[in-house]
Amino acid sequence: MRTMMGLMWMGSVLLASPARADLIPPQQVKAEARMAQNPTLYDRSDQYCLNKRVGAACRIDAHPVLGGGPGRCERFIDRNTWTIDLQCQIDDLVLPEGPENAPFYPPHDFCSNGKVPPAFESYMACPPQRTIPADRFCQGRQIGQACTLEYRDSKGKPGSVAWQCQRIQEFDDFYFAGWHQAQRTVIVCRPPGSAPVRQWTERSLLKKLLN
Fold first, then answer.
1. Contact, 70 vs 90, CB < 8 A?
2. Which residue among 14, 126, 147, 188 has the highest number of C-beta atoms inside a 10 angstrom radius?
């Protein structure tokens, strides 16, 4: 199960062109069609949008850097289950600054002759990862030492918070002739403990019909 922090850190790369339309998962096409046919339909919701409608106000009780704050219930397609999920999308999403020039590492079989496909060269490298980079807040510090994370929200408002340097794994899901997952190990200024986890509740067929 993915954490809120994981959701913030993970990106999804979907490469497609008129000549490579087969790179779009057919399940995604089907799910998008369902969404377009009914603008209020969803299959399950997280605990922050339970029994709420699309567009309703919601709130995640956590620090903004962890994905907390007020937001709106919006629909997204989960690429693991291909369900339409109603989840709390924070209004002022904060993306923590990570290490500079720290590539992600895809599975070994994604590389050919020690190289990733050209489309991924800007942010990926072939495994194994030989060094563990640190963000600028943990440069020269040990794991567990105090640090001060500086950040800006989506409106440009600055903020800072005192935390600890931690060694974590970050993940990036991407689609290229099938789904793959790249990862990297980094040292970053983050709060102790884990971020909030989304818990999903299936919506009953009756509620879908009465939607």
1. yes
2. 188
